[in-house]
From TrEMBL:
Residues 18-155 form the SCP domain. Coiled coil: none annotated. GO terms for cellular component: extracellular region. The lineage of its organism: Eukaryota, Metazoa, Echinodermata, Eleutherozoa, Asterozoa. PROSITE patterns: CRISP_1. This is SCP domain-containing protein. Pfam families: CAP (PF00188). SUPFAM superfamilies: PR-1-like.
Length: 167
């Protein structure tokens, strides 16, 4: 019952590296559209994110840490064609697409827009990404994105989440 990574010889570590690169690039594309500076990948935060991604994949459950020290977006993807179809840019786009429900006039947290606001949060400077494949279902990916400093701070939306300059 072994799984295989479709799309050639990149293997699991190559897949994870590409996922992270693509996710970072997507973050910075969306951030620039909203007047936020580029976010930089951080190794220590990525280790922290990877620990949680491994746990989620092993348990086959999608849940936030209860005792997190960073902002956190979590992502689950499954594709019958294999994990190569589950990409870093698609995961970040799924967060970003919450923009359609965000009210820039009132600006504040809502459970339907918190992923989007964290992606473009101006004050977040460092990003950690963890990616893990479910060991029992090789077509399922769990990804954890940790942000430092955290976004979605009550009362700070107007100075951190700006309308898009272009879409």
């Amino acid at each position: 019952m072994g799984g295989c990574f479709s799309g050639g010889s990149s293997g699991p570590s190559g897949y994870k590296s590409k996922f992270k690169r693509d996710a970072l690039k997507a973050h910075n594309k969306y951030r620039s559209m909203h007047g936020a500076p580029n976010i930089k990948m951080n190794g220590n935060i990525s280790k922290y994110a990877q620990e949680w991604a491994n746990k989620l994949a092993k348990e086959g459950q999608l849940q936030h840490r209860t005792d997190h020290k960073y902002g956190e977006n979590i992502y689950y993807g499954a594709d019958s064609r294999g994990v190569d179809e589950i990409t870093g840019d698609k995961s970040v786009k799924s967060f970003y697409d919450e923009i359609n429900r965000y009210n820039f006039n009132s600006g504040g947290f809502s459970s339907g827009t918190g992923h989007f606001t964290q992606v473009v949060w101006k004050g977040s400077r460092r990003l950690g990404i963890g990616v893990a494949v479910n060991p029992r279902k090789q077509n399922e990916v769990y990804a954890v994105f940790n942000y430092d400093p955290p976004g979605n701070v009550s009362g700070k939306y107007k100075e951190n989440v700006f309308p898009s300059k272009k879409r």
